[in-house]
Structure to design on (1190 residues):
């Protein structure tokens, strides 16, 4: 039986609880959002004692289901002041799954100035003072922890930014075969919630764990096989070769950053603070550019080259969209992964086209414990205000490095989120919804993603309803007109399916394959059903999660006035298509109507 | 007939409009809140083209009614993101009244980087490029303008802080007999709205104006005489002497800062970031201390001494609560006025007990164009975060001086409001409601003012429903228990009467006398009725204003979740009485129930 680990930081106690039958089908986002909505006062201060951190591996984490090792982290967000779920790959979900832990609920706040870590292994939990882990860069911290705990445990936690309660702080996780702190449940400032509870890390050792047992093993095996085959066959998620044996497309070749050129082509790549939809430097920081530099340094440095593409983000991953960007001059590891959103936030949106500068900004975010999307948008505010210049990678790096200096007010501000920094600097073009910065798709030429940004329970978030799949990449060979204005239904469908996937433990990128391939869909649903021994309706399940999240937000004070994009998207046309975001308020309000 | 001056900053045009009959009875706050609620999109960005600035002299401004020269400034607030009215004394209201101008509505936003001033005289308006007025400290600016315009015009506008769109920027006004920029419609960041429209100043010359004519002159004269006598007879608003001829109590002797010792005694004086209700240094920065230093420097420096108490804030003022604090070593003018709220925000709440340090911080705020309450609370955030120490006046002065340096990020942050600064610095005890910082009365031991802070349409604001009058000072000799929890009705009564007074042009401090003395009340109401030739119900009029403001805020996205105090007031008991804010949510929601 799966268990819940409930930790009380007030008195540093913990207990194991059975999963109550009403929560039996809940895992991942469904689990975190349910507990947050049932147990956290929606009006509470997100960084004081009443908030809770809820952590849950996706339902199938620890099984052999392909790409099923996602970890959800939930709380009331200090950035949006609404409910938040952020998820990531890494090691911890798989290990928690193998320890039979459905979720961890962390309550309260300790007195005093000590910093803690929570050490979890089979049926054991220890809440330990680890002051030596606080204040470190995360590369040093994770290396130190793998020395202290030689079983190569999963690690999640917060860095310097979270320890200082900065609103752009994410929850980091370590990589699967090294200690890289590059796996981020990045959004919504959840790292600061860790910091507020004075928790630096949660260290999970599954040495004595084992894969969880599905209720219907035969059907489970059959289903995951079906899904795995569908994933392998799909051009986005499989690794295909063309007639001449050259690799083409595919996440394993170019990673998510394959989108850099695609979205640029579509004229929807937000450039220099959302001022254009085209970036002349896009190709230089694209997935193709990373691919090339990896190949080049491998050629040059042979076995000592550390650059990589086709890299997995968690043990069960079959899509392998992750990468490691090498230093060009040594071939050594610089940063990994460099995702599309990150290359956009720290490159395109800052007008920076030097791949090594973008990689360095990414490395600094990973080391400080910062969400790259939020931080990139924040640096753009400094550029918009004229503090530093668009395109000046070195100035951006110097600015971000100030965050290491506890006394630096610039350092604090650059970690405090786009809205706080933009407002402090007198900027009026602040690209946020519900306080959270927009990701890498401009909503003016691609309206469906704008509908998702506006209405998502999470604040501006592409992963919460990735209509780009339909509007740019196409589903079953058919592209939905990105400029059409009736996108409420599309966004709602993506948002609800996403809430289901975010609960299953599956990586969201299976969506490409399940949308295009009925066998893929059947494999996904079949595996979840077989695991639970139930017949779960994908849409109903997803909508139930969204409903709880909406209700929490309503009690926290959100209204439909919060389901809107910033004014400048309605008034400033975006080149090259010179369009504004023309979706009506009525259309936006339809997304959650009658839920 | 009174007129409306409507200015369009998009094309730098203006026109004169008749006051439509539906707005006939509206002036001051009733005028600004009506126009803002009817003409401004509640969801608009407060610092972009869709917001409007509405300026209106109180109804009786320019007449001989005692203490009737208040000016209202309204807009959507960049600090609260709700509706805002802030009012002040100074010269401009009287002059606008004498020019027959009921209100000024400023729309749009000019293109380009020029800075403008609006020059108003009898039936004339000029919108002028005045780049030489931008970027100056306000002492220099007002001196320069009185040289450029020798008729000693009224001046209002924004300083450096507003020009940079800082959220703590107030709208300054000049003093009556010198150019001191010490009259502030300070709250809600309205100075930044001026800055967003690139307006530095509005300069009003009433040389050819005349006092407006009441509809019923006899009744008007009779009523204002009645009110004047009641004001003179009241110990708070008159200047009385004891048996031995020594002055006692009274605003004219000690100014509003007489409250420093009174609220300290009551245990409700928020000290060092709302951590205690008693400040051991209160007496040193009290109104009595100012009185003493004025007397001392007069004795020492004779006619060249510039310190003052019993100073009027606008031409018709009879209460004279204003003052000028002299430099102790020269007797020269340091700052004026040093109000209670300011001495609290820049003294008590920062643990600073050196009067000259507090005066210097006040002078810097006046020079930069900053609201002292917001700025004091913001500096407290820097202290709470350990950037500078509580009690260190020189460090606070150095911090605030950084605001002169356009490139200083600390300088930007210290002007950006308590919430932005607190959040950027990782503080979780941030004393704001609806984004606006709390004034000088702790709501834990004095619950009625807490109800006003929580529920006011304006964000935390003592002037919007000053229950302190009943809870500490007493009405008709009877004090309402400050610790009682059923304060909804009391707060609502104060809030509605205030909305009426804020529209009449009368200074809010007539409230002491109209509450205690039926003749005072009759004089106030009679004068308004006689001026309009109507019978206006005080409560109905006030509630109608509040209703419009609430409706605007609801459309802007406010819910009852916004009508709450920050969490720490509910959980941290305040010494010396060791009480928390125990008013229920239901009680808070009763204030505006069925409005």
């Amino acid at each position: 039986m799966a268990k819940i680990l409930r930790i009380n930081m007030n008195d540093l106690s913990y207990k194991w609880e059975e999963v109550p039958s009403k929560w039996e089908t809940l895992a991942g986002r469904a689990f975190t959002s349910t507990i947050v909505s049932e147990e956290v006062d929606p009006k509470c201060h997100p960084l004081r004692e009443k908030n809770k951190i809820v952590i849950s591996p996706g339902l199938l984490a620890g099984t052999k289901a392909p790409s099923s090792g996602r970890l959800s982290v939930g709380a009331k967000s200090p950035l949006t002041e609404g409910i938040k779920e952020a998820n990531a790959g890494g090691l911890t979900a798989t290990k928690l799954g193998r320890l039979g832990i459905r979720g961890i609920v962390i309550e309260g706040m300790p007195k005093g100035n000590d910093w803690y870590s929570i050490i979890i292994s089979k049926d054991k939990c220890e809440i330990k003072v680890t002051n030596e882990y606080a204040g470190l860069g995360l590369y040093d911290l994770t290396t130190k922890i793998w020395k202290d705990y030689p079983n190569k445990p999963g690690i999640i936690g917060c860095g310097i930014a979270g320890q200082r309660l900065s609103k752009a702080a994410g929850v980091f996780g370590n990589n699967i075969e090294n200690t890289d702190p590059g796996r981020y449940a990045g959004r919504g400032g959840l790292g600061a919630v860790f910091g507020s509870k004075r928790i630096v890390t949660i260290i999970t050792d599954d040495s004595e764990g084992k894969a969880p047992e599905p209720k219907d093993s035969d059907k489970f095996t059959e289903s995951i096989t079906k899904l795995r085959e569908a994933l392998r066959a799909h051009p986005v998620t499989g690794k295909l070769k063309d007639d001449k044996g050259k690799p083409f497309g595919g996440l394993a070749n170019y990673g998510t950053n394959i989108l850099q050129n695609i979205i640029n082509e579509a004229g929807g790549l937000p450039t220099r603070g959302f001022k254009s939809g085209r970036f002349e430097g896009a190709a230089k920081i694209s997935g193709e550019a990373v691919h090339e530099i990896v190949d080049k340094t491998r050629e040059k440095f042979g076995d000592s080259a550390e650059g990589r593409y086709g890299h997995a983000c968690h043990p069960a991953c079959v899509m392998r969209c992750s990468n490691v960007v090498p230093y060009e001059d040594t071939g050594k590891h610089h940063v990994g992964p460099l995702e599309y959103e990150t290359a956009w936030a720290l490159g395109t949106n800052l007008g920076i086209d030097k791949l090594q500068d973008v990689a360095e900004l990414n490395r600094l975010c990973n080391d400080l414990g910062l969400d790259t999307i939020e931080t990139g948008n924040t640096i753009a505010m400094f550029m918009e205000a004229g503090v530093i210049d668009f395109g000046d990678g070195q100035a951006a790096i110097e600015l971000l490095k100030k965050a290491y200096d506890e006394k630096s007010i610039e350092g604090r501000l650059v970690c405090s989120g786009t809205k706080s920094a933009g407002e402090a600097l007198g900027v009026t073009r602040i690209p946020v919804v519900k306080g959270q910065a927009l990701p890498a798709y401009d909503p003016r030429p691609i309206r469906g993603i704008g509908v998702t940004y506006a209405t998502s329970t999470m604040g501006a978030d592409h992963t919460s309803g990735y209509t780009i799949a339909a509007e740019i990449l196409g589903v079953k060979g058919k592209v939905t007109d990105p400029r059409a204005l009736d996108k409420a239904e599309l966004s709602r469908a993506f948002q609800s399916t996403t809430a289901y996937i975010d609960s299953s433990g599956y990586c969201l990128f299976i969506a490409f394959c399940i949308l295009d391939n009925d066998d893929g869909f059947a494999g996904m649903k079949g595996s979840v059903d077989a695991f639970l021994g139930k017949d779960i309706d994908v849409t109903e399940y997803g909508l139930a999660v969204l409903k709880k999240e909406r209700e929490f937000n309503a009690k926290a004070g959100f209204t439909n006035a919060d389901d809107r994009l910033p004014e400048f998207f309605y008034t400033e046309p975006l080149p090259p298509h010179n369009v504004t975001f023309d979706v009506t308020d009525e259309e936006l309000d339809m997304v959650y109507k009658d839920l």
